[in-house]
């Protein structure tokens, strides 16, 4: 923790870490931390194991190396109980065992929005740009209502041909064959689909506008730091950037909506539906920002990992191809048609309910990849839990890796093995014990799951039908197996040990 923590603090507060000579920062890190850093490993009288941190500041590693940090809690809680750490004046409790997990997902005093609003700064926040009269609950209910409307089967069904055309056009815009980083070009496919299905046609139609949108999103992410999250009032360099980028993003999304409203022009897209419902531009932009954010981060990282794993596993790759071939033969037998047209003729209901191989592959990929920490805040009264008191105002975190990568729950947990989901009894067991929560659980299950699964299925089907590919490093040397995801990288879970590329060429 030491060097990076101090450096990130300094770079954020002072403005530019490169202005500090290396020896100064190293001396500071070693000297200051030797005095300030403390580590408490045993369970204390308040019933919690206290995790290491810096006095007054707390455990900055929760932001900078989250997975490494939560693994301390997983180890500390192994024989029961929960861990606790400080972030400035906030207490954060990490539950990793069954009792804490069940409480985390079902207790009504734990507030979802409050947890993320204070402890997670990755999403662009509309309140950074325009003042909002609506309460958080009202904004959430608006978001849920609109999302559910857009995900109705008949509505999605009408969009499917356009989604496949978009995907095919994007793939046509790549060099016919070559080496590409999936964490770059596959992410862009997800953005394209999300904007097409849940946002504004004017942007979905324009590769340049999509590129700009992607730049703005990653701009918000890059401008997020521990300081901007924990000290939102602090006029740091990153905070100013974040506000500026969010304001630009807001305007970028609002402009085409306002223009269309002013011209009275009618298009066929999600924005049009919202305009016809009389929605304000602010609400529409809020919806689009949140939907796109959920889309490009989680769906993006999971589809990249899915393609990596499938490629490294000939058995599952063959099963996937035969599932796709069977669907094509049944629903679009004319082999003279282009593959994206044929795939688009498979009904949405079939994609959702009759693709068992894709379902297993997605489930297993998410178990290994989707392992961030979920967050809540106790907004009600003090609660007794597992021999300790979770006070009103305390935060709670549940690291998904505590369940998903635990050898007590999954044999050989780092092995990608979709077959482990074939036994219905096993699936039921994980459901009952809450040991698979890749799509959330209890009071806050993922509301975009159906759409995210469709996006991953469409991309997997079209990409693997169009291309042959192998996994290589940046020099083109083949990569054995599949690296582990770096779970400290909250936004991409990028491969440990360096970038992985796909060397691809068209299938004949
Ligand atoms: C592979 C892609 C995705 C994965 C693995 C995923 C996973 C999750 C998980 C684990 C949660 C629970 C968070 C918690 O309990 O703290 C969640 C919640 C949520 N997800 Fe997703 N998600 C994905 C894609 C999407 C997409 C594309 C959308 C929307 C377009 C979406 C919308 C939501 C919403 C609105 C919630 C919050 C529900 C609530 O407030 O109760 N998700 N998701």
From TrEMBL:
<dbReference type="GO" id="GO:0005506">
    <property type="term" value="F:iron ion binding"/>
</dbReference>
<dbReference type="InterPro" id="IPR050529">
    <property type="entry name" value="CYP450_sterol_14alpha_dmase"/>
</dbReference>
<dbReference type="InterPro" id="IPR001128">
    <property type="entry name" value="Cyt_P450"/>
</dbReference>
<feature type="transmembrane region" description="Helical">
    <location>
        <begin position="20"/>
        <end position="38"/>
    </location>
</feature>
<dbReference type="GO" id="GO:0020037">
    <property type="term" value="F:heme binding"/>
</dbReference>
<keyword id="KW-0812">Transmembrane</keyword>
<keyword id="KW-0472">Membrane</keyword>
<keyword id="KW-1133">Transmembrane helix</keyword>
<dbReference type="InterPro" id="IPR002403">
    <property type="entry name" value="Cyt_P450_E_grp-IV"/>
</dbReference>
<protein>
    <recommendedName>
        <fullName>Cytochrome P450</fullName>
    </recommendedName>
</protein>
<feature type="binding site" description="axial binding residue">
    <location>
        <position position="446"/>
    </location>
    <ligand>
        <name>heme</name>
    </ligand>
</feature>
<keyword id="KW-0408">Iron</keyword>
<dbReference type="GO" id="GO:0004497">
    <property type="term" value="F:monooxygenase activity"/>
</dbReference>
<keyword id="KW-0349">Heme</keyword>
<keyword id="KW-0479">Metal-binding</keyword>
<dbReference type="GO" id="GO:0016705">
    <property type="term" value="F:oxidoreductase activity, acting on paired donors, with incorporation or reduction of molecular oxygen"/>
</dbReference>
<feature type="transmembrane region" description="Helical">
    <location>
        <begin position="284"/>
        <end position="308"/>
    </location>
</feature>
<dbReference type="Pfam" id="PF00067">
    <property type="entry name" value="p450"/>
</dbReference>
<comment type="similarity">
    <text>Belongs to the cytochrome P450 family.</text>
</comment>
<dbReference type="InterPro" id="IPR036396">
    <property type="entry name" value="Cyt_P450_sf"/>
</dbReference>
